[in-house]
Amino acid sequence: MIPYVRDMAFDYGRPDQVSPLIRRVVANNPGPFTFRGTGTYIVGHGEVAVIDPGPDLPEHLDAILAATAGERIAHILTTHTHADHSPLAHPLARATGATIHGLPAPGADTGPNTGEEPDDALFRPDVTLKDGDRVSGPGWTLETLTTPGHASNHLAFTLAEENALFCGDHVMGWSTTVITAPDGDMGRYYESLQKVRARDFTTLWPTHGPPITEVTPFLDAYLAHRLGREAQVIEQLAQGRGRIRDMVPIMYAAVDPRLHPAAAHSVLAHLLHLARTGRVATDDIPGPDATWRLA
């Protein structure tokens, strides 16, 4: 069982000092994929970085500017380009002169198919990041950790001074993460989880929900849950259910039916990974409507 953490004290628009170097401002965009809303992080004091500015909501822009009044926002970093993470980057940069860091959008609008937030196809960073790149200010250092899986352009950012990781949607305390094929990739997601686990962080700060402080057991449970879903897919195929639409109601019977379309995409991601590793096959074009079988 994943030891979910869901308790979170906040008010929309209120800056909360959640650690010595971190403030959080939550946008008023709650939903089945955003939990209470997008948590925008402000790192440092005086000269600061903003991580995941969030959706393009005027009141959220005002809240970030109010939270940093008298300070300089020098850098804006985005974990990925879903519409609940990056659209406010350019308005915030115009208001502050900050430099935008991240990876460009892959270009596919996945929202209508998955129920997930669509891609911010207009996002273009000033600085394109790669693994190990650093951004720093007075008393703080952020290092880029590439974490593809949830999205091909997903990044996380370490905060060296607090041994913490801003993990975007890669790991969330309140829920599992949707892996949306073809941009999302289950095999790369497994690798990214192991990469994060190997760094032995003290705290994970997801963009949605409260921090994760029991990091290693949480990541172990997160990975075990994914492998359990993989085993369920194999069991469904063994029982003769070869279509995703027949698997999902059984595999996700305890999950809100509103999330079943997203779950179907995670099942597809599992099947594509199993096909690449030679364990399942299909005679159809590999996709959501294919009929699958054990190899």
Write up what this structure looks like:
Helix 4 runs antiparallel to helix 5 and helix 6 crosses helix 7. The protein folds into two domains: 199 residues, Ribonuclease Z/Hydroxyacylglutathione hydrolase-like (Metallo-beta-lactamase, Chain A, 4-Layer Sandwich); 70 residues, Winged helix-like DNA-binding domain superfamily/Winged helix DNA-binding domain (Arc Repressor Mutant, subunit A). It is elongated, with a radius of gyration of 19 Å. It has a seven-stranded mixed beta sheet with strand order 1-2-3-4-5-6-7, with helices on one face. It has a five-stranded mixed beta sheet with strand order 8-9-10-11-12, with no helix packed on it. It is built from seven helices and 14 strands. The chain is of the alpha/beta class and 295 residues long.
CATH architecture of the largest domain: 4-Layer Sandwich
Q: What is the CATH fold-level name of the largest domain?
A: Metallo-beta-lactamase, Chain A
Radius of gyration: 19 Å
Overall geometry: elongated
What is the count of β-strands?
Answer: 14
How can the largest sheet be summarized?
Answer: 7 strands, mixed
Poorly predicted parts: 108-115
Q: Specify the structural class.
A: alpha/beta
CATH fourth-tier homologous superfamily of the largest domain:
Ribonuclease Z/Hydroxyacylglutathione hydrolase-like
Features:
295 residues; alpha/beta; Metallo-beta-lactamase, Chain A; Arc Repressor Mutant, subunit A; 2 domains; seven-stranded mixed beta sheet; elongated
